[in-house]
Amino acid sequence: MAAGLKRALGIEIEQVVGSYGEFTVLVDGEPAIEAGALGFLGVLPGARAIRQAIERRLSRGPDA
């Protein structure tokens, strides 16, 4: 997924292993999307939702 996002959005991606059930996408150090409590059940946001959340966060800029 990280490679696809890098190609599609032209941005650098860093993957960091978190705790079990944790899934958070940070943009400029701020959460763009999270799995929340359902992450423990393996329910994660889909690729489209992740990309849209990143695009929204990038369009607001680092001070949003």
Description:
- With 64 residues, this protein is an alpha+beta fold.
- The chain is built from two helices and two strands, in the order H-E-E-H.
- Strands 1-2 form a two-stranded antiparallel sheet.
- Strand 1 (24-27) and strand 2 form a beta hairpin.
- The radius of gyration is 12 Å and the shape is globular.
- It starts with a helix and ends with a helix.
- 5% of the residues are buried.
Key terms for this structure?
64 residues, alpha+beta, 2 helices
SSE topology string: HEEH
Unreliable residue runs:
none
Give the amount of beta strand, in percent: 5-15%
Q: So what's the overall shape?
A: globular
From the N-terminal CA to the C-terminal CA, the straight-line distance is 25 Å
The tally of strands reads: 2
Radius of gyration: 12 Å
Mean pLDDT level = 88
User: What is the helix fraction of residues, given as a range?
Assistant: 25-40%
Number of helices: 2
Q: Which secondary-structure class do the elements indicate?
A: alpha+beta
Largest sheet, if any?
2 strands, antiparallel
Q: Walk across the major sheet and give the strand order.
A: 1-2
Brief synopsis:
With 64 residues, the chain is an alpha+beta fold. It has helices spanning 2-9, 47-60, and strands at 24-27, 30-34. Strands 1-2 form a two-stranded antiparallel sheet.
Lay out the secondary structure:
Elements: H1 2-9, E1 24-27, E2 30-34, H2 47-60
Antiparallel strand pairs: 1-2
